[in-house]
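The authors assume throughout that readers already know how a fold can be written as discrete tokens. What matters is that the chain and its backbone geometry are given together, residue for residue. A single example would do more here than another paragraph of explanation. For illustration, here is how one protein appears when written out as sequence plus structure tokens.
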Amino acid sequence: MITPNRLQKNDTVGIVSTARKISKEELKPALQLLESWGLKAVLGKTIGAEENQFAGSDDLRAADFQQMIDDPKIKAIWCAKGGYGTVRIIDKLDFSNFRKNPKWVIGYSDVTALHSHIHTLGIETLHAQILQNLENKSKATSTSIKEILFGGDYEISIASNEKLNTLGAAQGPLVGGNLSLIYSLCGSNSSLNTEGKILFIEDLDEYLYHIDRMMMNLKRNGMLQNLSGLIVGGMTNMHDNAVPFGKTAEEIIFDLVSEYNFPVCFNFPVGHINDNRALILGREVELKVTKNNIALSFKK
């Protein structure tokens, strides 16, 4: 995998929205944080644009992202908001210049569509908090992004006594993101090859039976059986029907992977939660799940 260049002070970061609309006013606190890091921000044409719920038309959002890809002065591209819409522009993008001069693409949730597609090109991306509400997340959220962008050593180690965890150790490239997006990309040229890799998943605002459906689809597509490990982040604001499904999201996932022989951890600090740590997708990692601790180490 190719690692984009680390950032330096005075580098320029392009800010775009590939999905839902967002105003310049909403981004002020996050832009002040970037300035405190010594970075310059350039707002794309999608910031402040509006077409129903989207940040402008598909063509505008694609052109905005394309300009950020092709502009050599832009050293990283940070997505301002998620929601839905990124998958609508994937096939409009030309990654020719990006493959020659890769740069960090930053975001999560709906941005999983970009992460997955770029992974197929052999380039690392940064699964991390979108700019919206960055200032309201944990200190560890922003610190983790800064550490990666500026090239510091990076690992995540947390205490854990989760009963559903499957203990063990594993190595492999880290892939994944939002479960709904991974599911929706199956069968496309943006779909992930998970064989021998450590898969990360998280989701928000889904019905429990949807979680079961999506996990069953991954299983039937052979995306679980040859994993090296599985990391489950926040399964946030899950819903149930009047007749209960009978299991939590975590229990659904555990039951569907319990036949396999790889380590699994739950409630990892990533996703639609306050403590949303950054992950380098595509990077070779080591996962250790013990009775009292979970450690994820990123290799240089």
Notes: The chain has a mean pLDDT of 97.
